[in-house]
Each structure stands twice: as C-alpha cells, then as structure tokens.
Design brief:
Number of helices: 8
Helix content: 55-70%
Distance between the termini: 17 Å
Largest sheet: 2 strands, antiparallel
Number of domains: 1
Structural class: mainly alpha
Radius of gyration: 18 Å
Order of helices and strands: HHHHHEEHHH
Strand content: under 5%
Length: about 200
Amino acid sequence: MSKNTIDPRTTILIIMILAAAAFRVLQASNTFSIFTNLTPAGAMALFGGTYFRNRWKAMLIPVAAMWISDIFINRLLYFDHWVFFYSGSWLVYGTFALMAVIGFFISKVNLTTVAIAGVGAALLHWVVSDFGVWLGGTDFTTGLPFSKDWSGLVRCYTFALPFLRNMLIGNLLFCGVMFGSFEWMQRQFPSLAPERVRSQD
C-alpha cells in the first residue's frame, strides 16, 4: 500500500472510537439518561489495543479520544470554563493506556477473550485509579482525606465498588457492540481485514 493511500481499516477504527467518545459526551450530558454511568471508555481502549497494528496508535488514539471527550464533559457538567487537565488526570489516562495494552494480548477475538479483557480492564481501572483517589482524594462522608493506612485504603475501594460495577457492565456492553460490529465489517469488506489475513485469501 502506498504511503499516500488512505488505509480504510485505520479510518474506520478511528471513526468508531470517536463515535464512542461522542456517545460518552451525550451520555454524560444526560441526553441518554438510561445509559448513565455505563461508559464506553474502557471498550474504546480495549478496541484500539486489539485492532490497531501500530501499538503507539493503539494507545494514543483511544486516550486522545478520551481526553477530548473529557474536555467537553468537564465544560458541560463540572466547570464554568474550559479545563484541559484536572487533578489526577495523568493517572486516569495512564490507566486507559494500560487497558489498551490488555488489548494487545487479544490475538483471537471471540466472546471469551473479549469478556475476560473487559473484566480485567474494569479491575485494573478500579485498582489503579482508586489508589490515586486514596492518595489524594477525600472521604465524601467526612469531607476529610482518606486515612493513609489499610483501613483508609479499604474504605476508598469499598466506596468505589458501584463505579467498578458500572465500568464492568459498560465494558461488556460496549465491547460487544464495538468488537462485534468491526468483526462483522471485516467479513463483509475484506479491505478492513489485517494485511496478514488478506494475504491468506
């Protein structure tokens, strides 16, 4: 393929990730309130990590889409001005980059591998991001920082269990939609399949 030729596979992957990010903004603005807290963010990262051949793109494109959607969500819901980065954002985006790395290991896309990856990504997000909350956040029941001991850590993770549940449901739901759609498209349009697969036809 010529360097100047647009790769349809890459184009479709980017469009799908941007569509998921746009849905995330609509979801957060309560346009689709039935989907509140069922975020496609984890699915975006796993999807990119699985299907992009270039591993830098696999991490950077989903994280960039997440960042852009965060900018709009923060403006619409949380601040009265544009905020490009917030406290702890580096840890959140780093976690989503690691979720994309989980996608690297999905060599064969099927219900079992995608479900395991979705569960693993949700657990990763819970452990890493809420560790950051424990370090720098506050206990909403007291307004005070979490105690920097085992009790405070367990308390922080316990408070985060509903978010873990929602991310797990969101990962499984949106992974099903994104992975299922792209697998179907690859079968219908051979130009979307990886080069190594097309060469075997």
